[in-house]
Specification:
elongated, two-stranded antiparallel sheet, binds S-adenosylmethionine, seven-stranded mixed beta sheet, alpha/beta, Helicase, Ruva Protein, domain 3
């Protein structure tokens, strides 16, 4: 008997449904239900929330989310072999688990969810960053989600929460921290998974802010950070030259030394630069 529900242990579920992990689907399963319940608790108060889970696999985290009281879980899974195991969980929690069989990159889950919505997932590593960037760049803010509780390779998690001056600091940190609070809430060794990946993993908790931390046009901010970090070793006056003929004056205006490099610059300064650039472009002045 497992510790969080009356369903069979996950090893037994995996053996019975022949759910041998497939590398091409990024399958590294969590089999310890105490651990999945702990991850589910990091997602915050689930009682009144719908939870979107990507890649439930045999359902360890799904069971954690349901046991922790999620109002409803919508799980999107690409691997048809996992569906019978997930159907058993749905039967044990009547009306609280819906499963969509398909590719999370192709499916718009919103029509199946009722706010407030949280997202929780032990993500397949090959699509994790792409999904995160989508969730961080919706057409309107606030986004459909209140929080994202996501497992990543530790190196990716560190890029999401990185501060200026570190090697990990770059576009992903700026994107995540501009309109959300982002922190690492757990680190897991390879042994926590079956099969164990080569690297450590970490759970990142992102909480949506009501609006941007500092005002800036998203497209202009994105242009600046792309140019700045694509050539992160260069001085900003060189890497941003293509954005405006008088980029040095704009950098000065934003309080940024033209000789500084991207990784030294705080989010607030990038936002100030984005507003200065926008004002120049709007005014049509060279
Ligand atoms: N949540 C389970 C756990 O924690 O044990 C499984 C996590 S495993 C790292 C990733 C899961 O995502 C697998 O079940 C895999 O089949 C599924 N998956 C991979 N690519 C997917 C995609 N494009 N859309 C939906 N699910 C996907």
């Amino acid at each position: 008997m497992s510790s969080i529900d009356n369903l069979p242990p996950l090893r037994e579920v995996i053996a019975r449904h022949d759910l041998r992990a497939k590398k091409q689907l990024g399958q590294n399963f969590l089999l310890d239900l105490n651990l999945t319940a702990k991850i589910a608790r990091q997602a915050g108060d689930l009682d009144e929330c719908d939870v979107l889970e990507i890649g439930p696999g045999p359902g360890g985290l799904t069971r954690g989310l349901l046991a922790e009281g999620a109002r409803h879980v919508l799980a999107i899974e690409k691997d048809a072999r996992a569906l019978p195991a997930l159907a058993e969980i749905a039967a044990a929690y009547p009306g609280r688990l819906s499963v969509i069989h398909g590719d999370a990159l192709q499916i718009d889950p919103l029509q199946h969810l009722t706010p407030p919505i949280r997202v929780a997932a032990n993500l397949p590593y090959n699509i994790g960053t792409e999904l995160l960037i989508r969730w961080l760049t919706p057409a309107d803010w606030p986004p459909f989600w209140q929080s994202l509780t996501l497992m990543f390779q530790k190196e990716v998690a560190e890029r999401i929460v990185a501060r200026p001056g570190s090697k990990a600091y770059g576009r992903l940190a700026l994107l995540a921290q501009w309109r959300a609070d982002a922190r690492i809430v757990m680190t897991l060794p390879p042994e926590a998974f079956v099969p164990g990946p080569k690297i450590h993993s970490a759970v990142v908790q992102l909480t949506a802010l009501p609006g941007p931390r500092f005002p800036a046009d998203p497209a202009i901010l994105s242009q600046i950070t792309a140019a700045a970090f694509n050539q992160r070793r260069k001085m900003l006056r060189a890497s941003l030259r293509g954005l405006h003929p008088q980029i040095e004056a704009l950098l000065d205006q934003a309080g940024i030394a033209p000789t500084a490099r991207a990784e030294e610059i705080e989010l607030e300064r990038f936002c100030t630069l984005a507003r200065a650039l926008q004002a120049r472009r709007d005014a049509g002045t060279p």
